[in-house]
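At this stage, I wrote out one protein, both as residues and as discrete backbone shape codes, and that material follows here.
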Amino acid sequence: MSTNPPPSTASDYTPPGLSRDKLLEMLRVRDASPGSKPTFVLVDLRRHDHEGPTIKHAINLPAQTLLVSIPMLYSIFSAAGIKDVIWYCSSSRGRGPRAAKWFGEHIMSQEKNGGDQSGQSGEKNDGMTSWTLEGGINGWMDGGDDFKEMMMGEVEVKTEKK
């Protein structure tokens, strides 16, 4: 059992935002190199509102159960060589920024302590960043067909007839 305190919600740390255009570019690069090792993890935090499609390659970790999992997630992501962890919910105005903040604070605490203090490994973080996807899934869907094509599940994609 870890003795680490839960992440603070009172710090001044604000996670950076990642634009949907940048994520689209990252997804395209990942898809163009199917044998390569992923360098980012995309986390869909929706639970009860997880209806319909999700962004390709995303994992679903509901925000309601996230806080206790942060040290273990950090260990797994760090051991896998993940550099970017991108969090989103419906709008990325609540759960997305909150999760990115908690995870970002954990990253900073590991850097301050010289490595992973969760008891899972001795590996030190090497530049991992916790991001919030700007606009969440709703903003992603509003981006148009290029964005909808990078989704899993039922999505209405309009195609132009020639």
